[in-house]
Amino acid sequence: MAAIDIPEVLKFIDATPPFSGLTAVQQKQLLAGVELTYARQGEKLNLEGEKATLHLIRRGACEIRSAQGALVDKLADGDCFGVASVLEQNPDGLQVVALEDSLIYRFKKSGFQTLIQESEDFAVFFTHTRSSRLRKLSRAHATDLATPALQLSTPIHQVMTQNLVTAHVDSTVQQAAAKMTESRVSSILVVEDKALVGIVTDRDLRSRVLAVGASADLPLSDIMTRDPAAMDSNSLVMHAQTLMSEKNIHHLPIIDTDKTPLGMVTAADLLRHQELSPLLLINQINRQNTVDGLKQACQQLPTLIVNLILTDMKTSDIGSVIAAISDSLTRRLIALGFDQFGRPPFSFQFLVFGSQARKDQSLGSDQDNGMMLSQEPNAEQATYFAKLATFVCEGLAACGVRTCPGDIMASNPKWRLSEAGWEAAFAKWVEASSPSSLLNASIFFDIRCVYGDDSGVARLIEGMQNRVAKTSLFLATLTRTGTVAKPPIGFFRNFLLESSGEHKHQLDLKHQGLALINDLARIYGLGCKRYRVGTKDRLEQAAREKLIGLDIARNLMDAWEELNELRLQAQRKHWQSSGEPSAYLDPSELSSLERKHLKQTFAMISEAQSAALQRFARGYA
């Protein structure tokens, strides 16, 4: 226990609400018997018996956790804890743990209780503090309740079937089919030297053997799917669901580091595991034969996203799950369009841009899409693709994916081009470097193919990267315009909040935070030799190619995760209260430690913008 410098304590509390509102006499009354304690990082602080009193953090950081271990609040310099212990004997069993080495003032219980009775403002402050933590505790309990229902963070080895059915690569089709029948399984793993080399499913036996009249004496190597998608046993259920959805597979082998099979997970296993899951929703989407059926199925999507947010799932994984669902919905609408309008006259690709391309969609994301046609259409062919594109875009809107305010959709003929047309558009945007070109670059250069052969898109991207590499003015201009918007921090490190309107005194986490990091990642990504579309992937690639310092890249990735988590939580809160997915945040709802971290995050983004200007725009006026 450290010695107390009373004048120093008075100076500190006189600048710290609510103590600053006390009279000089009341402040001295509170300080009678005050102690200064030291807590080491990780130490659990005792709030029982004589220790059940008001604590004030002088320097350091702590966190409050529920009796079950769920995070309730984070605290920093000037924050108090122990209120529930004094007023109500801590009925919720809250626990306080030091996040870092901390110095903490501990006041005598009697002095604090006297001031609660004497000063109404003092009492109201701590009543509000207690109410706020009860609300946060309620949200923490909601998280605990949501997790068993979804169990997306369950390790995959707890779900997989360990009774493996395997066959050697030289086994015959007849031998494998007999083994599958005997074991009552729908797939068999094909091994060579104990390592997984392939998989054969019931569907393979039907389509690759029976349907073509092939011999049952064929070796499995002739019909198996080689190097199948697989996952290690430390992965989570949510990763398995996302991979199976993206690959459209129903069997997922679980392997160790040397590719030795350890288990098998099927779509049925995951569906039994969860009542409402991404895989279940995707399967429901794929079974629908009408837009009305799809609309009905997609009514579950907001609830699913809210539940995902309530779990401990990483924000990047949530974005991947939503993208997998959006991709499946788009492909199903295309298939229903074929049913209505007939097969297309020639091949095409359906493209997505923006957040769906980057796989960072959230609640309320809108459409950004287009078509790449394999050749220039005649009038009749153009009419077909116009009908199909309109059907798909209107179907997406009916299912809750809002139309794009800027009309960047395949239903707009401007964004229904041949491969040569897209190449000409990309070339013009790179070479012109005009404001409109730069705006288009910020949208269309985040591109991904969700339907059709993506080789044309790969050629488009390769051509774009080559042009960017030869046109230094483009990256310089893109960097200057992409860093005009600054993080919302003022000269005195105060938040710059909305000054009027519906979101007065709030932060726009999307446009004032995440978009700034997305813009930086796009700039660095376009400067790379190898194209990546996701924001974190671009930063990692830029670090590998030495375009950006590893520390800046990591800081930006951490900032992206932090801001994305805040945005998703804000959207969840607004959605549950009003049905609107607002990404605005009132900073007063954060703890002082969270506000401190947010300010540091914005300051770091500002520094990264300066670094980008130095690298790409130096020498360009």
Automatic annotation (TrEMBL):
Mind telling me which CDD domains this protein's record contains? CAP_ED, CBS_pair_CAP-ED_NT_Pol-beta-like_DUF294_assoc, NT_GlnE_GlnD_like
Question: Could you tell me the keywords of this UniProt record?
Answer: CBS domain
Question: What PANTHER family does the record point to?
Answer: CBS DOMAIN-CONTAINING PROTEIN, CBS DOMAIN-CONTAINING PROTEIN CBSX3, MITOCHONDRIAL
- Provide the primary localization: cytoplasm
Subcellular localization: Cytoplasm
The portions of this protein that span the membrane are none
The cross-references to PROSITE patterns, in alphabetical order and at most eight, read: CBS, CNMP_BINDING_3
Q: Where is the CBS domain?
A: 160-218, 224-281
Annotated InterPro entries:
CBS_dom, CBS_dom_sf, cNMP-bd_dom, cNMP-bd_dom_sf, Diverse_CBS-Domain, DUF294_put_nucleoTrafse_sb-bd, GlnD_Uridyltrans_N, RmlC-like_jellyroll
Q: Which Pfam families match?
A: CBS, cNMP_binding, DUF294, DUF294_C
The name this protein carries in UniProt is: DUF294 nucleotidyltransferase-like domain-containing protein
Q: Which organism is it from?
A: Rhodanobacter aciditrophus
Q: Where is the Cyclic nucleotide-binding domain?
A: 18-121
